[in-house]
Amino acid sequence: MSVGGSTITQQLAKNLYLSPSRSLVRKAREFLIAFALEDHLSKQRILELYLNVVEWGDGVFGADAAARTWFHHPAQSLSPAEAVRLAVALPNPITRAPSVRDPELTRKCVRLIRLLRMQGLLDASQERTALDEVGAPDERILPDRATGATLAPPAGAPGAGAPPPGAVPQPNPAPQPSAEPEPQPGTEAPPAAAAPPSPATESPGAGAPGNSPPAGAGPAPATEPR
Description:
Elements: E1 2-3, E2 6-7, H1 8-17, H2 24-40, H3 43-53, H4 63-70, H5 80-89, H6 103-118, H7 124-133
Antiparallel strand pairs: 1-2
Helix pairs in contact: 1-2, 1-3, 5-6, 6-7
């Protein structure tokens, strides 16, 4: 993260711990303090501290004081165009104050608004409003990103299973021939499978008409009188 000739961490070190004087000793101390800050703090925390102590005008320090001074409401109520104009004012809020209207500053504002849109922080209508407020009404807004993804209807819903609009209908596949092998010349066709035997029926009881003993069977054993 850098602004001007030094990084945001170096400017934070200078604003918090050092005087605004210019010397090699102060620059060396600024470098060492910045190294310690980056070793102990995250970039998000460094940026938060920087925005709360950076100068935005004569005696105006911090984003909230800048918002109240230039736009007469707290920082949390800033519009996208107002936030961009405050950002463009750094690191020289005297010659690049939010009230200054300059073509170069307007181009910087447009670039920042484009970045906010590409990051998904603004929609098309908010981008249009911000461009108008920073003095760029002729700038075109960015087109919406087309995903091209379609959701299939749930099973059982009307149109479920139907081809999507614009799809080319595909012909039905031709029936495939059976895969049974053809008999070769000189070979006999395999015999047809025999039908399974019918279930055995219960034979009639002894003494029933037409019941004859099986061939080769001996005479029935005699029974003793009681």
